[in-house]
Design brief:
Strand content: under 5%
Helix content: over 70%
Number of strands: 0
Distance between the termini: 29 Å
Number of helices: 3
Structural class: mainly alpha
Length: about 80
């Protein structure tokens, strides 16, 4: 788990871009299964919106993680040994 966290922290934009592309692909695949036939342009619009929502959630989570990680590092630095 630590190796994954270090890779993600070193490749932030790649991680977010990969997650966005995966969300678009998953959304298009899910909407193509056919409950109601949609035009391809409408499928892409929905996929983009789903991917944007996921990206915002990931960015919010990353910001929260970064905030608490920095706060913990500052607390460790101020505690005398």
């Amino acid at each position: 788990m630590e190796a994954v966290q270090s890779w993600i922290s070193q490749h932030k934009l790649t991680s977010i871009g990969t997650m966005w592309a995966a969300a678009v692909g998953a959304s298009v695949a899910h909407s193509s299964r056919g409950r109601t036939p949609l035009k391809p342009s409408l499928r892409l619009i929905h996929a983009r919106m789903h991917a944007q929502a996921l990206t915002l959630a990931v960015l919010s989570g990353a910001a929260t993680y970064h905030y608490y990680n920095e706060k913990r590092a500052q607390e460790k630095a101020t505690i005398p040994n």
